[in-house]
Amino acid sequence: MTGARATDGDPGGRSKRAEATRRRLLDAADGLFYAGGIRATGVEAIAEGAGVTKMTLYSHFSSKDELVAHYLSERDARWREALEGRLAKHEAPDEKLLAVFDAYREYVVSGELRGCAFVNCAAEFPDREHPARRVAREHKAGLRRRLAGLSAEAGAEEPEVLAERLFVLLEGAYVTAAMEGDEGVVDRARRLAEDLVSAAAVARGEPSRG
Q1: Angle between the 159-180 and 93-103 helix axes, to the nearest 10 degrees?
Q2: Nearest CA to 136 among 82, 181, 74, 178?
Q3: What are phi and psi of 209, to 5 degrees?
Q4: What is the pLDDT of residue 9?
Q5: Using one digit for the tens of pLDDT, what is the confidence trace for 78-125?
Q6: CATH class label, 13-61
Q7: Which CATH number does 68-203 carry?
Q8: Which of 20, 119, 181, 202 has the most crowded Cβ, counting Cβ within 10 A?
Q9: Exposure on the CB side of residue 175, measured as CA atoms within 13 A
Q10: Is 119 within 8 Å of 175 (Cβ atoms)?
Q11: 47-60 pLDDT tens trace
Q12: Are 172 and 189 in contact, with CB atoms under 8 Å apart?
């Protein structure tokens, strides 16, 4: 009884243990989903990777779909943090636009490359209303919005048009890097982006930096 009362009187300790367990589950899911695919990875493997039972997993996530959505949301948050850290090193909006390519090279292309987790998710879940697809769609939409905002700050006459062109360059470079193992493609895409940004500067009456 004394032990039970001590446990009941330690909600902070239980909360920390629960958070640590949740963290282990998400870490295991991140590695296994990305390496082996979402559909091919069962919850048993994730529970085993986290050192818990399947029942414990379901006490933290009501379904595998919910776990997948959290896995993608965390990847999105890490990407946004890395991107904003890179952008913070620059002041001029046109330099920030090009810095997005630097962030792609550093965060996405470096290390073991198995493709974009969000594109991979879309390939595995054709239903556009699946929770994971919604997270993946918002991830790409968020990048488009950020590019459009930077394009507007840079004075582009048609910021959405410039943003879409840069977005296509980024995505194409990533897919090529994943398929062919060619990390230099991001640098080549960046040089093409320089031409697009310079053209936008000329269109608004500023001299090209090239």
Answers
A1: 20
A2: 74
A3: -75, -15
A4: 59
A5: 999 999 999 999 999 999 999 999 998 887 666 667 788 999 999 999
A6: mainly alpha
A7: 1.10.357.10
A8: 119
A9: 9
A10: yes
A11: 999 999 999 999 99
A12: yes
